[in-house]
Amino acid sequence: MPLDLEGLAQRHQIVGRRPELRAMAACLVCARNVLLEGPVGVGKTALARAVCEGLGRGFVRVDGDGRYSEARLVGHFDPPGVLARGYLPELFVPGPLAAAMWAGAVLFINELNRMPEGVQNVLLPALDEGLIQVPHLGAIRAEPGFAVVATQNPAEFVATGHLSEALLDRFELVRLGYQSADEEAVIVAQEARRSPDEALIHDAVALCRATRTDPRVRRGASVRAAVAIADLAAALDGDLHAAAALALPTRIELADGREGAFELFLAELEKKNRLSPSGAPAPR
Predict the structure, then answer these.
(1) Is the pLDDT of residue 246 over 70?
(2) Mean pLDDT of 157-180
(3) 216-229 in b/e burial notation, b at 16+ Cβ within 10 A?
């Protein structure tokens, strides 16, 4: 039965993204693994959860970390139990990979390109053959429905690495970029907790979108920042400047890291977008 993308999007409050939903669903129906590439805050996790729910697949999440170990991903034997009784199967504690394989679920790896190379390599036999070998336990075979959906930020992001050609060859690529201003405004209205008015939503979205194209910014703000600005501005009697000063420093990266650079940047950004500190249009 074909996946009801519209119903799925409504249940999960997904704005737009129909081509990406369709592409992901097609990959998983065909037992293909999916690599979602896009900047922070474009909804990669939300899309993966929605498609897995729509297909009736379990969802096992792992967050990429440079200190993540192979044993943590696959699983390990309980040390006290091994000392007392030896390597018995019931003493094996499954990691996310083993758990997803046994359950025929989707293993979702957030920011795979932050994982150490050794951990990435553990995935190869699971992706190729649905099989991994665990010392003292033997073979773990994947049940039908097992697949890997991984995300990666673009290579220019800090603390990210490149995936090997061997690993990339096992994935289908779905790219997610930033959405249109209108779609981002709908997301802000949907996600904000303080019910900001339309003008505040428009200005919050405009400010965040401007950071993505400004040459002084290495990493721009996502729609998540716009939600925070709109919420805070509504709580601060419409003071967009104060809201942006709270929300943006942790969500953008300036090329100039000197003290005071952010305050100057924000003032110039507001002036360029014709916004006064209160959020009202600045006089021309």
Answers:
(1) yes
(2) 82
(3) ebebbbbbbbbbbb
Q: Is 239 exposed, middle or buried (0-12, 13-18, 19+ CB in 10 A)?
A: middle
Task: Give the pLDDT confidence score for residue 165 in this predicted structure.
Answer: 87
**What whole-number distance in Å separates Cα of residue 274 and Cα of residue 55?**
46
pTM over 0.70: yes
The CATH fold assigned to 5-175 is Rossmann fold (3.40.50)
For residue 160, give every residue at least 6 positions away whose Cβ sits within 8 Å of its Cβ, in sequence order, or none. Answer: 111, 113, 114, 152, 153, 154
What is d(CA 136, CA 201) in angstroms, rounded to the nearest whole number?
57
Q: Is the pLDDT of residue 280 over 80?
A: no
Report pLDDT digits (tens) over 36-55: 999 888 989 989 999 998 88
Per-position DSSP letters for 119-173, written without gaps between them:
HHHHHHHHHHHSEEEETTTEEEEPPTT-EEEEEE--TTSTT--PPPHHHHTTEEE
The DSSP bridge partners found for residue 34 are 149, 172
Cα 43–Cα 44–Cα 47 angle in degrees, nearest 5: 85
Say how far residue 105 (Cα) sits from the centre of its chain.
19
Mean per-residue pLDDT over the chain, rounded: 87
Cα 26 to its chain centre, rounded Å, is 20
